[in-house]
Design goal:
Strand order of the largest sheet: 10-13-16-19-22-25-30-33
Helix content: 10-25%
Largest sheet: 8 strands, parallel
Low-confidence stretches: none
Strand content: 25-35%
Structural class: alpha/beta
Number of strands: 36
């Protein structure tokens, strides 16, 4: 058997890259796009072995807890290591065939995608001294804006469903008798999952995977391609449309299409959510609905910061990027291409629009900053409902964001 190639996943810190709120509470390689994060895809590839990760000191302790790998400890006992940019959700096949001293950069940005180097050359390579033999990869392969989760969604989900269909099917699955299956694409139900009577699984145009201990309640409709992660619940009469990935421990209802849930989020009531990304510990009040298409049918425009310049996103359909711990009141409306900063609380009759700052407390009386002590109390209460206690590293990282806000 060929030895697996050691991989070191690194975070780069180019000034031109702006990924908040996606990366406020996680490294870029832990952002879920499709069913998996970039790190999980590498760990599931039997050709490589992830030997560790390199992150900023502000994320080090939290990353050590989240991925349980050596952090900021480059391997020294190997002849060569493949450096992989953490902003690469799906590694190009060519990267796995690099020889020592070779690298691939992204053509549009000239940022390093991957390089095969000796241990002593790790730091010089990351300091932008690329190996002598460097090739250019056409097209975008690195995320550098929050809305790129939408740009890479379909390719990542297709890759992930193919892997999951083979992996779960290998341990034995059976379509429950009361469910109605349509289409000839794979429908894979983990043996620990529960699919209740009246569920419709429409696999005419894409695979459907329901992972370990997930529950699909009566009357729900799942339309592939889509993924329901471990311990998540799709509630009664929900419609899960193509392109949706639901991470672990979520509750989802209403009409949801083309949306990725990082995990531990609640959308337990009616309302439409389309072409969006939802962070952890988000709670969307009953009737919360977003727009994912301009009335002009034109390309969407967004900002990376609340008062930043407008940028073309390259996407016609783009809903909202909703940061971790965001809460919305009942019947909230979120406009096209909005980016909601971490920890915001929205209870306004006016629609939420544009890019908002972190820890905003928004009501019809105006906007102010969420009190730090109050936010931490609410955060801990919300996490306790899932029997999760935030670690000291997690609280410290949140406090640093509150102080910076």
């Amino acid at each position: 058997m060929t030895p697996r190639q050691p991989v070191l996943v690194f975070e780069d810190h180019h000034e031109s890259v702006a990924l908040a709120p996606l990366t406020d509470l996680r490294a870029s390689f832990l952002v879920r796009i499709g069913a998996f994060s970039g790190l999980e895809r590498l760990q599931l590839d039997d050709r490589v072995r992830v030997a560790g990760v390199l992150v900023a000191s502000s994320h080090a302790e939290l990353t050590r807890e989240q991925c349980r790998l050596p952090v900021n400890e480059p391997p020294t006992d190997v002849p060569g290591v493949l450096l992989v940019n953490g902003r690469c959700p799906l590694l190009p096949e060519a990267a796995l065939h690099l020889k020592r001293g070779e690298a691939i950069i992204e053509g549009s940005s000239a940022h390093l995608i991957a390089a095969h180097v000796a241990p002593e050359d790790i730091r010089p390579t990351l300091d932008a001294h690329h190996p002598a033999s460097t090739r250019v990869h056409d097209g975008r392969v690195l995320i550098s804006r929050p809305w790129h989760v939408r740009s890479f969604r379909d390719e990542c989900l297709s890759h992930d469903l193919h892997h999951l269909a083979r992996a779960i099917a290998g341990v034995g699955t059976r379509l429950p008798a009361p469910a109605i299956a349509i289409g000839d694409r794979p429908v894979v139900i983990a043996h620990t999952a529960t699919v209740l009577p009246g569920v419709v699984l429409d696999a005419e145009h894409g695979a459907i995977v329901v992972d370990d201990s997930a529950t699909i309640r009566p009357g729900a409709v799942l339309i592939g391609p889509c993924y329901v992660g471990p311990h998540s619940t799709v509630l009664e009469r929900a419609t899960i449309r193509p392109g949706t990935s639901i991470g672990p421990w979520c509750k989802v209802n209403g009409e949801v299409g083309g949306t990725t849930f990082q995990g531990f989020a609640n959308k337990a009531h009616d309302g439409y959510l389309g072409d969006s990304w939802v962070g952890e510990w988000v709670n969307l009040g009953a009737g919360t609905t977003n727009s994912n298409l301009l009335n002009t049918y034109s390309e969407t425009i967004a900002c990376v910061t609340p008062n930043g310049r407008h940028e073309r996103t390259g996407e016609q359909f783009l809903g909202a990027v909703i940061g971790d711990h965001v809460k919305t009141a009942i019947c909230s409306r979120i406009m096209t291409a909005s980016v909601l900063g971490t920890g915001g609380m929205y209870a306004t009759t006016a629609a939420i629009s544009g890019t908002t700052r972190s820890f905003v407390w928004a009501t019809d009386e105006g906007s102010r900053t969420y009190r730090a002590d109050k936010f931490l109390d609410v955060m801990q209460s919300a996490m306790a409902r899932r029997k999760v206690t935030p670690s000291a590293a997690y609280v410290a990282r949140v406090r640093s964001l509150l102080d910076a806000g």
